[in-house]
Q: What sequence folds into this?
């Protein structure tokens, strides 16, 4: 260790040990002085003179002590702690100021941190796997963009014939029906090829992960996720070797994956991974199958473009000879190969929430800005009122830098406290926001937490806002001249013209920003209202739905049919149930099924013209969902297997195939060969929203469950009641269970919940956006109030004179209000164009109104003006209550 | 200001303390201060108290060591002595100083036969 390094080490030790060395030093100094006195006495001085000379020679004992102790410890750190102590006392002494600052910051920082934690989780977080950046999805693409992996046989060609890749794996995530210890449950899991874990570089925490050999299914095995192992099996290692069954295939659990890894579909944590080949072998051999994803890792040093170039000829060679492929399909979907980065997992979640989240991020950023403008004003006002204190300190010899350092400490302490409270708010808020997404039939589980990245973000904004809005205004205001400040009479100091201008500018900016936020929030709220008001085509109130799934091995086709009939009969007898039905799909479930049809008398122009959405429904379906019958009849018990085929179509189908003519009695065919069916259209129903609220209703074909085209292994039971449908849950579930213990009832929810879930983005934007624009409004009202209140207190004397000279109370109120009106008017002049400009990119997220919607803007302006007047009235009123005599006496 | 003069002379004072201890053997603070005063007057030591910050610093760098002992007048006093590291430092600093002094002297000397 060199000398200076030793010195620092000794200083740090000295700092930690504190003041114990002082006593020792005191004794040393005492000895020094006494030795000096003795010497002086010896040279013949009187005792008094000897002491005086000794003290003089020594110089200031205090200074010597201070210098030595500065040398002994870490003086800057000590003075920092002193400043901190002083700052704490200052905070306690003005609780109102401290409260306002801390609350404003807590809200602003809390909101930003909470949203950022969600942004981090959804948009930024990488998969917890080895080197995620070299992972790519291999996808088909065409005129309609990229979509899924090419057919499975093509994947096998890629795997065997390419050299750019270190490995590739096929996988697909789905709801799996798992039977564990004889109990059926539904679990989100993945089918994945044996190479999956190897490609991702995910290891086992106990047992082993899948290997390429497991594709052979000798025997079929499964791997659990660590999280599922913990929650379902309590982390019991005895789970290895246990047999579970998935869709009636028995599988042996051979391992648990490493902690933190839950598949590569963000928002949908997978609990179990089973071999890809467990799926129907016919499905895998299907030349045009189209149901999974390929994740690959390219070799180090290989460019993704190079890898793509290697795939392309294999792909074209595979696709070209497919005879069943229409030219549109080829152009739109199966045109060429693309590589998409897979470092963050599949893109569905990001695609849905990137835009809303970024918009909300901007919103909370602006709210913080509005809040911070208030703080800047407050800090300036406070520094002004402390001018005297600063002047005194400067006058008695404090250095300007020393003073600045203390102000810095004070300000940053306040910002630190505010952001600490904000972090607590953020932890709660991010859970709340994540909860927003965890609704509906396919809830999203976002693990938003305050981690290192989020903390760094928060620290960054605290530092930035603290310096810009806290320290800068304080220092600007504190640049006092001791002479003039001490000269100033009275307790009030006057604001300089520049400072007042600065504060007014801040308020104008607040008004403009608030208006922008209000307009944005208003547009989103009205979008949600519009969507809710939209004719859904069905009545969502009073309907309870649940997915019913018989998983036992004994359910043959015949037994299934009997089961559905019995289920309906039982449920219809439950008190409170008005009607009940089973169906494959329900409105707004987010799912769809397609079927190719030939309508007699209709000439298709393109392959897609023959495509309809299909739904299998039982009798009572239209009554239960409140979809009105327009013509013909609904299904009855007579439409059973063997009877003439009967189907019902919606208005969209009638319009398309019959040009609005009457479709009743027309003939419609589906399938070919053994699957060929001929149906008569017996009914026409009104259009009801199908997959999503925003999409126009597609052409829909309703087929009776009793004349099914396919095996109906899973249906959704729906019951309508007059009251609250959630109350029927227990009774209906009891009926389902009574039919067999191996029947699963999942996804229990009311139809209204389902509608809400379908509008989750819109609700997120309108609720969170609306809340924060309201917050901005309140903050700018506070800002305006603060400015005027400060102005009134500064102008007490002037107002007193005016009143003494005969101004009445009304004139005084008007004087104050006029000033506030001016500020608001300038703010609006800036804010209205800003709001219109800011709203323009939102067009795609709105529904039923333009971003430049005049009503919304007008209402927002009115709300803002009203709020501003309310905020100005208090100071104006106070000004009118000034007693001229007292005011002038104080002057 | 007083502070800036001290800063300027801080290194000088440290060096003088080391030199004094090296030549005189262990001394207490008062003795050191007197000795330095005698040799340099008030040029280096503003007053006797100034020396103590220097003593603390030199101790921290382990160039000197301190020990309580008895003075000739039978008084308890703290005695400082130079360490082996201190001697090494002193030798280095002394040659640095001499080199620097020589350079400065050459630079500041009136030029002999220089160009105008």
A:
């Amino acid at each position: 260790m060199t000398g200076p390094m030793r010195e620092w080490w000794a200083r740090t030790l000295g700092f930690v040990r504190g003041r114990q060395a002082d006593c020792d030093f005191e004794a040393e100094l005492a000895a020094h002085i006494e030795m000096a006195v003795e010497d002086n006495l010896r040279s013949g001085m009187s005792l008094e003179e000897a002491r005086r000379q000794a003290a003089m020679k020594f110089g200031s004992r205090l200074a010597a002590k201070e210098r030595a102790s500065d040398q002994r410890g870490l003086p800057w750190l000590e003075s920092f702690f002193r400043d901190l102590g002083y700052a704490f006392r200052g905070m306690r002494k003005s609780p109102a100021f401290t409260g306002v600052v801390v609350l404003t910051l807590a809200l602003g920082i809390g909101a930003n941190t909470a949203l950022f934690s969600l942004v981090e989780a959804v948009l930024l977080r990488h998969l917890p796997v080895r080197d995620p950046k070299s992972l790519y999805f291999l996808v088909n693409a065409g005129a309609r963009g990229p979509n899924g992996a090419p057919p499975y046989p093509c994947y096998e060609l890629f795997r065997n014939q390419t050299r750019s890749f270190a490995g590739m794996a096929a996988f697909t995530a789905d709801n799996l029906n798992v039977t564990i210890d004889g109990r059926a449950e539904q679990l989100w899991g993945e089918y994945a090829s044996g190479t999956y874990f190897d490609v991702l570089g995910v290891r086992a925490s106990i047992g082993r992960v899948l290997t390429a050999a497991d594709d052979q299914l000798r025997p079929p095995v499964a791997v659990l996720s660590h999280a599922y192992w913990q929650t379902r099996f309590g982390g019991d290692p005895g789970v290895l070797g246990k047999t579970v069954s998935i869709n009636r295939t028995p599988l042996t659990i051979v391992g648990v994956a490493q902690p933190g890894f839950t598949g590569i579909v963000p928002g949908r944590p997978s609990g179990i991974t089973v071999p890809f080949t467990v799926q129907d072998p016919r499905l895998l051999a299907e030349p045009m199958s189209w149901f999974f994803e390929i994740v690959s890792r390219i070799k180090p040093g290989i460019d993704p473009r190079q890898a793509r170039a290697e795939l392309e000829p294999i792909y074209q060679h595979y696709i070209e000879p497919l005879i069943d492929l229409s030219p549109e399909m080829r152009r739109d979907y199966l045109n060429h190969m693309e590589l998409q980065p897979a470092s963050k997992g599949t893109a569905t979640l990001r695609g849905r929430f990137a835009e809303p989240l970024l918009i909300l991020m901007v919103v909370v950023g602006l709210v913080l800005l509005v809040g911070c403008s208030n703080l800047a004003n407050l800090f300036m006002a406070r520094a002004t009122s402390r001018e005297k204190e600063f002047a005194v300190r400067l006058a008695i010899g404090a250095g300007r830098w020393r003073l600045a350092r203390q102000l810095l400490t004070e300000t940053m302490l306040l910002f630190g406290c505010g952001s600490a409270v904000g972090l607590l708010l953020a932890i709660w808020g991010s859970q709340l926001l994540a909860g927003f997404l965890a609704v509906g039939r396919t809830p999203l589980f976002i693990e938003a937490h305050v981690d290192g990245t989020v903390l760094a973000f928060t620290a960054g904004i605290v530092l930035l806002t603290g310096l810009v809005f806290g320290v800068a205004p304080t220092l600007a205001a504190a640049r006092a001249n001791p002479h003039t400040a001490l000269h100033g009479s009275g307790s009030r100091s006057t604001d300089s013209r520049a400072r007042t201008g600065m504060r007014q500018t801040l308020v104008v900016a607040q008004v403009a920003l608030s208006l922008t936020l209000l307009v944005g929030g208003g547009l989103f709220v009205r979008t949600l209202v519009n969507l809710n008001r939209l004719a859904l085509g069905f009545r969502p109130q009073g309907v309870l739905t649940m997915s019913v799934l018989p998983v036992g091995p004994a359910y043959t086709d015949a037994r299934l049919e009997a089961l559905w009939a019995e289920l309906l009969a039982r449920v219809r007898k439950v008190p409170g149930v008005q009607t009940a039905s089973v169906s494959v799909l329900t409105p707004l479930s987010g799912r769809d099924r397609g079927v190719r049809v030939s309508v007699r008398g209709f000439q298709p122009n393109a392959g897609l013209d023959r495509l309809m959405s299909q739904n299998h429904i039982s009798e009572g379906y239209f009554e239960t969902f409140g979809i009105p019958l327009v013509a013909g009849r609904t299904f009855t018990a007579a439409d059973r297997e063997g009877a003439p085929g009967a189907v019902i179509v919606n208005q969209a189908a009638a319009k398309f195939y019959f040009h609005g003519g009457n479709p009743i009695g027309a003939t419609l065919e589906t399938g070919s060969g053994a699957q060929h069916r001929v149906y008569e259209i017996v009914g026409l129903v009104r259009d009801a929203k199908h997959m999503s609220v925003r999409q126009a209703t597609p052409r829909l074909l309703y087929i009776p469950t009793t004349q099914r085209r396919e095996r109906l292994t899973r249906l959704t039971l729906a019951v309508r009641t007059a009251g609250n449908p959630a109350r029927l849950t227990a009774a209906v579930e009891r009926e389902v269970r009574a039919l067999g213990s191996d029947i699963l009832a999942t996804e229990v929810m009311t139809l209204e919940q389902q509608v809400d879930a379908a509008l989750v983005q819109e609700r997120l934007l309108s609720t969170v956006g609306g809340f924060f624009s309201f917050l901005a409004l309140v903050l700018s009202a506070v800002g305006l109030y603060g400015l005027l209140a400060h102005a009134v207190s500064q102008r007490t004397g002037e107002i007193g004179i005016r009143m003494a000279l005969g101004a009445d109370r009304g004139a005084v109120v008007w004087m104050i209000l006029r000033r506030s009106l001016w500020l608001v008017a300038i703010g609006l002049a800036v804010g209205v164009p800003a709001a219109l400009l800011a709203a323009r990119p939102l067009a795609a997220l709105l529904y039923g109104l333009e971003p430049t919607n005049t009503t919304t803007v007008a209402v927002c302006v009115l709300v803002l003006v009203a709020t501003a007047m309310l905020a100005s009235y208090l100071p104006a009123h106070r000004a009118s209550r000034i007693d001229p005599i007292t005011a002038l006496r104080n002057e | 200001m007083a502070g800036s003069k001290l800063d300027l002379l801080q290194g000088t004072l440290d060096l003088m303390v080391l030199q004094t201890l090296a030549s005189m053997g262990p001394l207490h603070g008062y003795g050191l201060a007197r000795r330095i005063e005698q040799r340099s007057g008030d040029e280096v030591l503003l007053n006797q108290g100034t020396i103590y910050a220097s003593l603390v610093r030199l101790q921290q760098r382990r160039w000197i060591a301190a020990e309580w002992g008895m003075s000739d007048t039978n008084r308890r006093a703290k005695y400082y002595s130079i360490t082996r590291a201190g001697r090494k430092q002193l030798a280095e600093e002394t040659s640095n100083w001499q080199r620097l002094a020589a350079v400065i002297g050459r630079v500041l000397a009136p030029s002999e036969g220089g160009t105008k």
Notes: The first helix of chain A runs from residue 3 to 17.
